[in-house]
Design a protein that fits this description.
Layout lengths: L14 H9 L5 H5 L5 E4 L14 E16 L4 E10 L2 E8 L4 H4 L5 E11 L2 E13 L16 E4 L8 H14 L9 H6 L5 H9 L4 H31 L10 H9 L7 H14 L6 E6 L5 H14 L3 E5 L3 H14 L7 E4 L6 H10 L4 E4 L13 E7 L6 H8 L7 E6 L5 H6 L5 E5 L10 E5 L4 H13 L3 E5 L16 H23 L5 E4 L5 H12 L5 E4 L12 E6 L7 H8 L10 E5 L5 H12 L3 H12 L2 H4 L8 H6 L3 H17 L7 H16 L1
Parallel strand pairs: 4-6, 8-13, 8-14, 9-11, 9-12, 10-11, 12-13, 15-20, 16-18, 16-19, 17-18, 19-20
Antiparallel strand pairs: 1-7, 2-3, 2-5, 3-4, 5-6
The structure holds adenosine-5'-diphosphate and magnesium ion.
Length: 698
């Protein structure tokens, strides 16, 4: 059977299944084989009934002593109950709403039963166990070794009508029928990093004999994604290294004079980052660098100094912000800090009034530093000689956006991205592996620490009173709400972005109503959420900044980087539901003015782990430390948005494994340095092209 065959070709898969499989994005045999388990239950040891432990998954082997079907009228359910015995004792097994089980299993059936031992209402029983008949009276017992019990049992992402058991049932015969799969991974790499070959790996990932076989197979599939990603990074880097950029002449003495005239002294890591950027833009190769640093760490000044250098060379720089408010903020910062260059800087946003004149002067090269929103990269904007592009709060500057900036340019501009989102190291080495990194690790010394408190439920009223007091003194407050947890959500089931936003909206609305009607009826509150249009959001932020409201109730979408120095309170509801790095980011919204600021973390959870986790926010030195912790505790999804990456789950999880990230990087370097066009690796060449396409679609 060919891998590209549609699953309808598989015997036993009718139109109904085809539809259901489609929900799991499975259309072909290949898709089905690449639908990997997200976990394995280890039932490899058969446990004597007398030694079962409560709340543990286990497999027992026994004989059915008694079996009955009854209807529970109260719960409107059909319940099958069986008493299973072995030499050491007996235990009840209970199946809910699976009446057919009563027809398959009989008194005297000998079988394996795998499930969890539950204790409830003074009863101990095996709940909904999977079973596999090993010998029986009356029923067909033909077996090819156990598929569902007594081994390592894979658990798959499921959907209505398609269970893990069903998937396993379909997969087993297919693996015998499929054609040989060509392995695109270079054999020398597989050998060096001790990874299984593809045909073996695809079998072991679905039907491992033990957990270590499963691990080996998973490692291979994760490794290949990281390997491709690293190849992609190397390729982007080498391509850029062949491009030409404007080599800027940097007069060190002049730069020193400029920094000495600033109203503050640069921090050590600001100096280091500046140095790294300057040595890049002096080269005739385009810079591709990410400047990371906490909110308020002073990234803008550093980027602005680079822009000033372009201007000093008679060349131009573009300074791109995600919103109108931020663009204005940058414009003000630059003109205030570098008054000497006042006439070189212009602001270009959707709201700019005399656009025509400005566009003309940008084209003529009168304006050297153009600060603005996406209006900068729209049609009709032409630079005379663009040497540098600075992009704020956007990790990635899209290929197309780059292309627009390149229009009419003989040379490629140097690129500098700025971000306050702390990225753990494994991620910066992979997802952002094509970028060079500069990191500002400390805040300026003059910052007052923000008083951070975890508020227990019994102190909620007191905290509200405190907030009201602050507002009466003229301050403002942010309130952040988490998304409502989607109740009894099945493991492995995926919510769409839209569903998530709906849940978020519901929660912010509830909180807004409660606060504005019951808690603070006399104050002016406003609400902000992800389903609003960006114009609307910007207006609200602007109004809040202009003190038209006392409290801003928001989801986690709250605009990055906006400076509201008068806001001194950051109150976070359901703090335990956010990542640490994210909480840290929220807190960075306050503490930007002269007044003492406060961050209040509300949680209903009394669990020790939650308390400990939240408390690490009180001691953390910077956001990176917390990002590493988050990655460990919550996985990489939160850093990238779970659904939009197009990066398989198995590789996402591997991003937690520094060892593997490093190995994949070395492997990619080995191949790329000897065979950059994959001439000696034709299968890899085909696979890599596909990978590139998938990445660009992101
Ligand atoms: P970021 O963009 O990293 O969030 P900004 O560049 O907006 O931070 O800086 C925040 C504020 O701190 C600005 O008002 C800026 O002028 C000021 N600032 C920057 N560097 C320093 C420094 N070394 N010492 C004191 N203040 C600084
Ligand atoms: Mg900023």
């Amino acid at each position: 059977m060919e891998l590209s065959a549609e699953i309808s070709k598989i015997s036993g898969i009718g139109p109904k299944f085809v539809k259901q499989f489609e929900k799991l994005k499975i259309k072909t045999v290949k898709d089905l084989l690449w639908h990997f388990p997200f976990r394995y239950d280890d039932y490899s040891k058969i446990v004597p009934i007398g030694e079962l432990a409560i709340n543990q998954p286990a497999t027992i082997h026994g004989v059915i002593n008694k079996i009955s079907i009854r209807r529970s009228w109260k719960k409107n359910m059909i319940i099958v109950e069986a008493l299973i015995i072995d030499d050491t004792g007996g235990i009840k097994a209970v199946w809910f709403n699976q009446p057919y089980i009563g027809k398959i299993l009989h008194q005297g059936s000998e079988a394996n039963f795998a499930g969890k031992i539950i204790s409830s209402k003074n009863e101990i029983y095996l709940s909904n166990p999977t079973y596999e008949v090993t010998s029986s009276r009356g029923s067909s017992g033909a077996m090819n070794g156990p598929k569902h019990t007594a081994g390592v049992i894979p658990v798959y992402p499921e959907t209505r009508g398609i269970t893990s058991k069903g998937i396993r049932f379909i997969l087993k015969p297919i693996l015998k029928e499929i054609d040989h799969i060509d392995d695109f991974m270079p054999p020398e790499i597989l050998k060096k990093y001790v990874l299984p070959e593809i045909n073996l790996a695809i079998r072991k990932i679905h039907f491992p004999l033990n957990l270590s076989e499963a691990e080996g197979a998973r490692k291979r599939f994760a490794f290949e994604e990281l390997f491709l990603l690293q190849l992609n990074n190397l390729k982007i880097k080498s391509k850029l290294a062949q491009e030409k950029a404007i080599a800027l002449d940097v007069d060190v003495d002049y730069l020193r004079k400029l920094t000495e005239e600033l109203p503050f002294a640069l921090t050590e890591s600001q100096k280091k980052s500046l140095h790294e950027i300057i040595s890049d833009i002096k080269k005739p190769r385009p810079m591709n660098r990410l400047l990371q640093g906490d909110v308020g760490s002073g990234k803008t000044v550093i980027a602005a100094l680079a822009a000033i250098m372009a201007s000093k060379n008679g060349k131009q720089a573009a300074f791109l912000a995600p919103t109108e408010v931020l663009a204005q903020q940058h414009f003000q910062t630059i003109t205030k800090l570098f008054p000497e260059f006042d006439h070189d800087v212009c602001l270009l946003t959707g709201a700019t009034a005399d656009k025509k004149t400005i566009l003309r002067d940008v084209e003529n090269g009168v304006f050297k530093i153009v600060v603005g929103t996406h209006a900068i990269i729209q049609k009709g904007v032409k630079f005379k000689e663009l040497a540098l592009a600075v992009v704020d709060e956007q990790h990635r500057f899209g290929v197309e956006q780059r292309a627009t900036l390149l229009r009419n340019q003989k040379l490629v501009p140097h690129f500098l991205s700025m971000s306050a989102t702390p990225i753990p190291r494994t991620l910066s080495l992979t997802i952002f592996g094509d970028l060079e990194l500069s990191t500002i690790t400390e805040l300026p010394a003059d910052r007052k620490p923000i008083v951070t408190k975890v508020v227990a439920p019994e102190n909620r009223q007191k905290a509200y009173g405190f907030i009201e007091e602050q507002i009466k003194k003229g301050r403002q407050a942010f309130v952040i709400c988490p998304r409502i947890e989607p109740g009894q959500q099945e493991e492995g089931k995926i919510l769409t972005e839209m569903q998530k936003k709906m849940l978020e909206l519901k929660s912010v609305k509830q909180e807004f109503e409660k606060l504005s009607q019951q808690i603070f009826p006399k104050l002016k509150l406003v609400m902000l959420h992800g389903k609003m249009k960006s114009k609307e959001k910007e207006q609200i932020m602007k109004d809040f900044k202009d003190k038209k409201f006392d409290i801003l109730v928001s989801t986690s979408v709250i605009e990055v980087g906006v400076d509201v120095p008068n806001a001194t309170i950051m109150m976070i509801e359901g703090a335990d539901r956010f990542g640490l790095a994210q909480l840290y980011q929220f807190r960075g919204r306050v503490g930007r003015g002269v007044h003492q600021s406060f961050c209040l973390l509300f949680t209903d959870s009394t669990s020790d782990t939650v308390q400990r986790r939240l408390n690490s926010l009180l001691t953390a030195k910077n956001g990176f430390e917390l990002a590493e912790k988050d990655l460990e505790l919550r996985g990489p999804g939160q850093f990238m948005g779970e659904t939009q990456t197009g990066f398989p789950d198995i590789a996402m999880r591997a991003l937690q494994n520094m060892e593997m990230v490093k190995s994949a990087r070395s492997a990619a370097e080995e191949i790329f340095s000897n065979d950059p066009d994959f001439k000696n690796h034709p299968l890899l060449s085909v696979r890599f092209k596909k990978f590139e396409k998938q990445i660009h679609l992101e």
